Amino acid sequence: MTQDLIDETRGETERYMLNDLITLQNKNGDLEYRDKNGATPLHIASANGYISVVEFLLDHHVSTDLADDDQWQAIHAAACWGHLEVVELLAQVFQTSIKKLL
Q: Which one of 18, 27, 51, 94 has the fewest beta carbons within 10 angstroms of its own beta carbon?
């Protein structure tokens, strides 16, 4: 097992998730559906550091405030697993929302 193989496999899973979400969106499906643990696609993408998926979901205005069954929001999952770039993306959305309120 090499790092290249790990990166390739991880990238493949991210591409599959992104393609599935694009297909769902094109069919007017719910991009905030929940799995058996209450996690949304944004939770899953954030926990895995799938930048392209997070960007796609944010571009389609999914809620960043939804909590899963453990009361975690997507930003908690990203922070827990050390995906700082995702944390930054989610924090920017929060900051933009606050500015609009002021």
A: 27
Rounded (5°) CA angle 51-46-17: 65
In the chain, what are the domain boundaries? Answer: 3-101
Amino acid at position 75, single letter: I
Each residue's pLDDT expressed in tens, for the chain with a length of 102 residues? 788 888 788 789 999 999 999 999 999 999 999 999 999 999 999 999 999 999 999 999 999 999 999 999 999 999 999 999 999 999 999 888 877 777
For residue 40, give both structure tokens. 């949304």
Contact predicate 37/69, CB 8 Å? yes
Q: What share of the chain is helix, strand, coil (3-state, %, to 5)?
A: 65, 0, 35
CATH class as words, domain 3-101: mainly alpha
